[in-house]
Design goal:
The chain has about 200 residues and is mainly alpha-helical. It is built from 10 helices and 2 strands. A hairpin with a 2-residue loop joins strand 1 and strand 2.
Length: about 200
């Protein structure tokens, strides 16, 4: 047996994980989880975008997130700080100087993640970015609903193949494709050979 064949060995997917994350019989369950998570994101983001004080989006953009970040920096003290030193450094050197931009990114990011999850459009990608926001909120010392939303996002990332089955992924993924398997829009069309005369 050659070395090339050894490197190409694939480990088969266990029956349980194939059932949980790839069997369309569980699509209704994944759809409910996906829509719930999407609603949570859309609700949170819409409140920020439409905030009448304009502290997230508008003429005072960045005020709310600056207050949140300064509150996070206050949680770095003591024997068991809620915010790690490395994340406090990120807040101090990256997030606070860009609070206005970050404010828009958070508000609109939450809305876009929520809409994508509710519609079931690029579900795995939307869940990944939602989970990334949850992780950042947790790193900043805010618990709230973030742990349960993070777990739901991780689950949807794992079950992306069927989480969007009852959604726009059913149309979009065959057209766009996935890494390593381009969809109809990105497949190369090979020219037909001309018949010999």
């Amino acid at each position: 047996m050659s070395t090339t064949q050894d490197l190409r060995t694939q480990i088969p997917e266990p029956t349980l994980t194939r059932f949980l994350f790839a069997d369309t019989r569980l699509a209704p369950l994944w759809t409910l989880l996906r829509i719930w998570l999407g609603y949570e994101w859309l609700h949170a983001g819409w409140g920020k975008v439409t905030n009448p004080a304009g502290v997230w989006v508008g003429d005072k953009a960045g005020v709310a997130i600056e207050g949140f970040l300064k509150g996070s920096l206050a949680k770095t003290q003591g024997d068991h700080p809620d915010v790690s030193g490395w994340y406090a450094s990120f807040i101090q050197n990256v997030a606070l100087p860009n609070a206005e931009l970050l404010s828009y990114m958070v508000a609109f990011g939450e809305v876009f993640v929520g809409i994508a999850l509710i519609l079931g459009l690029f579900t795995g990608i939307a869940a990944f970015f939602g989970g990334l926001m949850n992780a950042n909120f947790l790193f900043a010392g805010t618990v709230s609903s973030n742990p349960i939303m993070l777990v739901a996002a991780f689950a949807i990332v794992l079950g992306w193949r069927i989480a969007g089955h009852y959604g726009l992924d059913r149309i979009a993924l065959p057209m766009v494709g996935v890494p390593g398997a381009p969809g109809r829009l990105f497949r190369r069309v090979t020219p037909q050979a001309k018949p010999a005369l």
